[in-house]
Amino acid sequence: NGHHQVVSSLIKAQADVKGVHIDCQEVAKSTFAVELPPKQLDFGCSPSDSELSHQLHSALEQSGFTESRAALQSAAADVLQQILRSRLDDNPFFVVGSYSEGWGNNLTTLDGRTDANSDIDVMHLISGREYHQKSLCECDGASEQHELVNGHIQCSGFASNPAHATPGCPLRPALDNVDACRLCRYPPITPLLPNRVSNIPHPVLEALQKVLTSASSPCHVVHAASPDRGGEELRVSTSFLENRMLRSLTTLQGQ
Question: Which residues of 161-181 are buried (b: 16+ CB within 10 A; e: fewer)?
């Protein structure tokens, strides 16, 4: 910010500690001999949307928001998930959310760290509890079934707070611990319906179809409800589908 004298004093202090003689003025000059972008002339002109878009793209590239970095971030999340399971007797824990999806865990730079204002979402699937949907369930002997309305099953008696926040510390980032229960099957997912015209690439659609039936990505509900419906319904989660979709993004799409 133009404080040349402050920089010169700091350089001199560092040199004195190391017992080295340097020309502080020359170093300060070279320190500030950085080519700065020309200032925008104030003639009522502003950058075009295209120029702003290219500037944002360049800044994100320099911050590491690229497809390869996002893939590495996702791989780190998969490893963390395996570590959690092995340390906690193979309990069904899942690392979900932005940390696992690869792109939004840290909006400063994509380098594997979790931003101070962010957290890691860890979902625990409660064993032995499974819900069933009316008109969709094909399970034998499922006596209690629940209506599905706007992505929620109508089931009362639960607090409408899906996450239990754990603050971070210098050794680990903050956590959001989410309890979830199995749902016997996914409800119809619009982009995956037969004969549905979609801009999603065919290989990604196939991968999403596999998620619907994979044991490693079980359909589940979390303790969240529509406005003014707290304690009366549970929300069907599509976090595994979202995860798979976001992991397929190109650099430009991810940015």
Answer: ebbeeeeeeeeebbbbbbbbb
- Evaluate whether 64 touches 109 at the Cβ level (below 8 Å): yes
| Strand pairing category for 152-154 and 148-149 | antiparallel
Please give the span between the terminal C-alpha atoms of the chain, in angstroms, as a whole number.
30
- In this structure, the chain runs to a length of 255
- Residue 212 CB coordination number (10 Å): 14
What is the Cα Rg of the chain in Å? Answer: 26
* Tens-level pLDDT at each residue, the chain (255 residues): 778 888 888 888 888 777 766 665 655 555 555 444 555 555 567 889 999 999 999 999 998 899 999 999 999 999 999 999 999 887 889 999 999 999 988 877 788 788 887 889 999 998 888 899 898 888 887 778 899 888 888 988 776 677 788 888 888 888 899 999 999 999 998 889 888 888 889 999 999 999 998 888 999 999 888 888 878 889 999 999 999 999 999 999 999
What is the crossing angle of helices 239-247 and 67-87, to 10°?
140
Whole-structure pTM value:
0.74
Quote the CA–CA distance of 192 and 184 in Å, as a whole number. Answer: 18
